[in-house]
Automatic annotation (TrEMBL):
This is Rhamnogalacturonase A/B/Epimerase-like pectate lyase domain-containing protein. Keywords: Cell wall, Glycosidase, Hydrolase, Secreted, Signal. The keyword Ribonucleoprotein does not apply. One of its GO terms (biological process) is carbohydrate metabolic process. Residues 57-112 form the Rhamnogalacturonase A/B/Epimerase-like pectate lyase domain. InterPro entries: GH28_Enzymes, Glyco_hydro_28, Pectin_lyas_fold, Pectin_lyase_fold/virulence, RHGA/B-epi-like_pectate_lyase. Its main location: secreted. GO terms for molecular function: polygalacturonase activity. It is found in: Secreted, Cell wall. Belongs to the glycosyl hydrolase 28 family. Residues 1-33 form the signal peptide.
Length: 482
């Protein structure tokens, strides 16, 4: 009996030891499994400034499943990282995944970096889009007279802000907003994808922006801005999906961007009617280069229509437009006031266009009925040179304002090939003054040909602007995140 009892106890002990060993083994495997989920990613990019501190969105509870809202995670992360503003700045890394989020605001000395497989999905929950006041230089929202929804990525009164990535994606899921706009159900103006206000030293680069509710990139009342390597895509029928809109900004560089949109690829602005005149912040010292645009119903580069604070010293070169309504368009009207002057465009190639040049002095769409009918815009010193276009419906439509002619228009070394069904009259001109040289087909009488010896007559500045002298630094990081 005793022997049987001892044998039983031995078996029991063996089973107990085996069970303990199994628990330890499983715990170890779970621990190893947890360790295996820690990812290390090394990357580098060029930026106006590098950061001393980095963290991942997952460190702050972010979930990249495309379903969970990350609005609070972004807000918490940025608030936490703001403590490093005076200690070398901070970077928030967004890993691969689909990160659903509403509007969130950035901080100074900060970088938001999107992994190449990261997608920010704009929330369809309207409560995640706070409403703010209209822009003071506009006096009202553009979609509705009241306020406007805060942009997806927003910031105001900031210094040294970077939004970049390894061509990561920001998807505005704009169909929801476009339908509301068309049905006239919006009480407030639609949000933009990226908007920074009253800020200095801004970089927006190496991202893909899809289906914005309205404008894509909107720096406003800001200075020292680089927008580089951005791909913007929206349906060509989507309403007001402008690509890049520098608005009352100084010293801006837009380069190496590809834009397909339902509105102007680049729209240069500075306020609307009496509100823009009163606010008085022009857009000036703007460089646009190596831009490719597709927009069948709008312009490659538009100056206006909201230009009441003035637009001066814009330099655009190496531009390609394909199946786009117009190459360069100036949009203004009685009541706008302000000015568009010292505009320089060279080396532009266009394929399948409605107009190559379009200047409109009767563009409507006023902010309200209180605009000053005596506020006439000044349009002068507009220079185009070294351009070629094919399959064009009409070479130019240039219409100034009666008793307020647009002056100093210079067009040189431009060859325009007309489409098989082109207009019989390739140029229409009214209330303008200027000259041409080496332009085909022959321009209107208000732009007399100065002869081939004046082929270089139209100016393009040789001195660089301050933003061109800003060199980017190479930043290298190695991130560990769950």
């Amino acid at each position: 009996m005793e022997l049987l009892w001892k044998s039983h106890m031995k078996i029991h002990v063996i089973r107990l030891v085996s069970a303990v060993f199994l628990v330890i083994l499983l715990s170890s495997e779970k621990a190893e499994s947890r360790k295996a989920k820690i990812v290390t990613n090394s990357f580098e990019y060029s930026a106006i400034n590098c950061r001393a501190h980095s963290a991942s969105l997952t460190d702050f509870g972010g979930v990249g499943d495309g379903i969970t809202s990350n609005t609070k995670a972004f807000q918490y992360a940025i608030s936490n990282l703001s403590q490093y503003a005076t200690e070398g700045g901070a970077q928030l890394y967004v890993p691969a995944g689909k990160w659903l989020t509403g509007s969130f605001s950035l901080t100074s000395h900060f970088t938001l970096y999107l992994d190449k497989d990261a997608v920010l999905l704009a929330s369809q929950d309207i409560t995640e889009w706070p409403v703010i006041q209209p822009l003071p230089s506009y006096g009202r929202g553009r979609d509705a007279a009241a306020g406007r929804f805060t942009s997806l990525i927003f910031g105001t009164n900031l210094t040294d802000v970077i939004v970049t990535g390894d061509n990561g994606t920001i998807d505005g899921q704009g169909e929801f907003w476009w339908q509301q706009f068309h049905k006239k159900k919006l009480k407030y103006t639609r949000p933009y994808l990226i908007e920074l206000m009253f800020s200095d030293s801004i970089q927006i680069s190496n991202l893909t922006l899809l289906n914005s509710p309205s404008w894509n990139v909107h720096p406003v009342y800001s200075s020292n801005i680089i927008v580089k390597g951005i791909t913007i895509i929206a349906p060509i029928t989507s309403p007001n999906t402008d690509g890049i809109n520098p608005d009352s900004c100084t010293n801006t560089r837009i380069e190496d961007c590809y834009i397909v949109s339902g509105d102007d690829c680049v729209a240069v602005k500075s306020g609307w009617d009496e509100y823009g005149i009163k606010f008085g912040w022009p857009t000036k010292q703007l460089v646009i280069r190596r831009l490719t645009c597709i927009s069948p119903f709008s312009a490659t580069i538009a100056l206006g229509s909201e230009m009441s604070g003035g637009i001066q010293d814009v330099r655009a070169e190496d531009i390609t437009a394909i199946h786009t309504e117009s190459g360069v368009r100036i949009k203004t009207a009685v009541g706008r006031g302000g000015f568009v002057k010292d505009i320089y465009v060279q080396k532009m190639t266009m394929h399948t266009m409605k107009w190559v040049f379009w200047i409109t002095g009767n563009y409507g769409s006023h902010a309200d009925t209180h605009y000053d009918p005596n506020a006439l815009p000044e349009i002068t010193n507009i220079n185009y040179r070294d351009m070629v276009a094919d399959n064009v419906t009409m070479a130019a439509r240039l219409e100034g304002i009666s008793n307020d002619p647009f002056t100093g228009i210079c067009i040189a070394n431009v060859t325009i090939g007309l489409a098989a069904k082109a207009k019989k009259q390739p140029w229409t001109c009214a209330d303008i003054e200027g000259i041409t040289s080496g332009v085909t087909p022959q321009p209107c009488n208000l732009l007399p040909d100065q002869g081939p010896e004046k082929i270089t007559a139209c100016d393009f500045p040789t001195e660089s602007l301050p933003i061109d002298r800003l060199e980017l630094k190479k930043c290298t990081y190695s991130m560990k995140y769950a």
